Amino acid sequence: MLTMLPGPLVLLISTSLTILFTALCASLIMLVSLAKLLPIPAFGRACSRLNNRFMRLWLGCNALVIRLTTRIDWQVEDDSQLRKDGWYLIVSNHMSWTDIVVLGHLFRDRLPVPKFFMKHELIYIPLLGLACWGLDMPFMRRYSRAFLLRNPHLRGKDIESTRNACEKFRHIPTTVINFVEGTRFTEPKRDAARSRYRHLMPPKAAGLAFTLAAMGEQFDSLINVTIRYPENAETPFKDFLMGRVKRIQVRIEELPVDETLVGDYFNDKQFKRGFQEWLNQRWQEKDQLLDSWQRDQEPLPVAAKEGPKESAEASSAN
Fold first, then answer.
1. Residues 214-223 pLDDT 10s
2. What value does the mean pLDDT take over residues 286-297?
3. Are 72 and 246 in contact (CB under 8 A)?
4. Considering only 141-150, 185-194, 245-254, 291-300, which range has the smallest mean pLDDT?
5. Which terminus of the chain, N or C, has less C-beta within 10 A?
6. What's the rounded Cα separation, in Å, for the pair 283 and 209?
7. Per-residue b/e over 243-263, b at no fewer than 16 CB within 10 Å?
8. For 235, phi and psi rounded to 5 degrees?
9. Which residues pair with 255 in a beta bridge?
């Protein structure tokens, strides 16, 4: 509807609507979350269900903004069988803040309300951080090896927060989303991390393994998602808000959660090695998929384009 407007004007409209809807839903969630502080478990779970409704409202508002400001060609490969009353673990590559909107849009009518593993620093974002806290989203503190050597008393604290968050998910159907790379992909970050992958950051296995150990028997399946913005790889979020994202490629793969993925990652060296190999293999396949999507988009070399013409000329000469 608004796609014919200039990009800066679309940016103003989409940003204003997004801020408005986010502020409204976040305020409602915060008000309900104050009531959750009462030490009555059943009442707390009722508040959580109400907050999930507000979260689903926010996802619906995002879908409205998408329909108003963009015309996206959704190229989705999906053979999954999902339901809204189950428990799922989504693992995805992380290209942009847009990933959150994309995942919410794709799954909002197919899965329970999503919960994201978030960096602890994000809790300080005004309004939004407290709303995510009210939604029981786990905030993870990631410590470097050097920092833990200086502060050994903090070892295992990030895993403890994962355990506490997972306990809250046991009573209400939930979709847990884990960006296992731990940060958004950029080429400088990739090079600094010495990633073996061309289009991805190295995956961090510990948090994922612990989530599976804590809730593995409850998850119906693991959803492996690959996202790419073919024409907007440099600034996908800005382009998205300006209505300039015309195509999004997504592959959704449903994988079983079996005994090979559930174990003691921190004390069983054989399981730890096997889990890391499994995750690295999934990431290698994801990187190859992204590479093939990119090759399909690249124009043919000039020589290849002229090949048929040269053959025709040679044929006529004969």
1. 787 889 999 9
2. 91
3. yes
4. 141-150
5. C
6. 15
7. bbbeebbbbbbeeebeeebbb
8. -135, 65
9. 222
